[in-house]
Amino acid sequence: LISFWLNAAHLPHPDDDVERLRKQPEPAKDEKPKPTKAVLEIRDSSGALVRRLEVDAKQGVNRVNWDLTRTAYRSPLPPSPWGGGSAAPVVPGDYEVTLQFAEQSAKQTVRVLPDPRLQLGAADYAAKAASWREFGTVQEALTDAIRQVQDLRADLDRVAALAKANVDRRKEREPAREIGDDDSHQQLGKAIEAFKEKLLDVEKQLWQPPETTKGYIAERDAQSMLNVAAWFYGSSFRPVTVTQAAYLRAAETRTREALAALDALLGSELPPLREKASALQLLMQPVTPAARLP
Question: What was the pLDDT predicted at 274?
């Protein structure tokens, strides 16, 4: 629990009854809004950012709960009441906490102590931290690939909508004209839909998209397998066991297979589709860069 004191008259009073009766002066016309949030940055002994916490500030004592974890790894899964992606616990040691509010800042060193019940040494904590980093590498590569698919699908939808609009406008100008399936804009729209179906098949190897997933399904996709590994990794502060490590290896293998399938699709079938769109003066955006596993 991190505590700090703020003395700024414009901040809410900690007593709700007092705050309701309090009248704040009207701001001047050109006055900039006054800050109402405080930021805590936690860094390790090397100066690397471990966690950033932004909180609504109030007058007097403010308390923020830091659960002794690092910033969660990026994840495509929507935030839950318990947080977003998986987050690794910090190792025991000294950490610098910087409080920033308006133009002022203050620093304080805190020490995270090892849990005396576990009787773990520094090497044990370092080993577990290394295992979490391996997990994070897989999770973030997987997230990058999923975002790449989502961005590409949005761009395909944009181009397909423009192609359809072209057909609709021609029908509007010439109602008696029959625009057949051999029309280049019609063909582009069909080609995009066919490609999107293949893209969805590959995406389901990466994870189960919420908008297309119904009911309970076999958890054979990379993200589901990685979620199982995350559960085992987060179940104990002790170094991972051989069995727990095997879950991550299996998820990593599945991730590599899915990434290879995605790269093959993008390399073989996207360029011809891009050429068809370009021939109709419909330019597609470059594919979002995405990290791959080493």
Answer: 96
> Residue 93 belongs to what H/E stretch?
strand 93-101
Cβ atoms < 10 Å from Cβ of 155: 18
Model pLDDT for residues 179-200, shown as the tens digit of each residue: 888 999 999 999 999 999 999 9
Tokens coding 95? 């950490």
Token pair of 283, please? Answer: 């330019």
Amino acid at 54: E
Can you tell me which residue has the tokens 């576990």?
118
pTM of the model: 0.87
Pairwise CA distance, residues 55 & 64, whole Å: 8
Pick the closest to residue 148 from 24, 12, 290 (CA basis): 290
User: Quick one: which of 152, 147, 158, 138 has its CA closest to 267?
Assistant: 152
Strand order from edge to edge, sheet including 37-43: 49-56, 37-43, 93-101, 104-112
Find where tokens 């991972």 sit: 240
> Which two three-digit tokens encode residue 198?
């293949």
Q: Where are the alpha helices (DSSP H) in the chain?
A: 16-21, 122-173, 184-206, 222-234, 242-268, 270-279
The tens digit of pLDDT for each residue in 241-266 reads 999 999 999 999 999 999 999 999 99
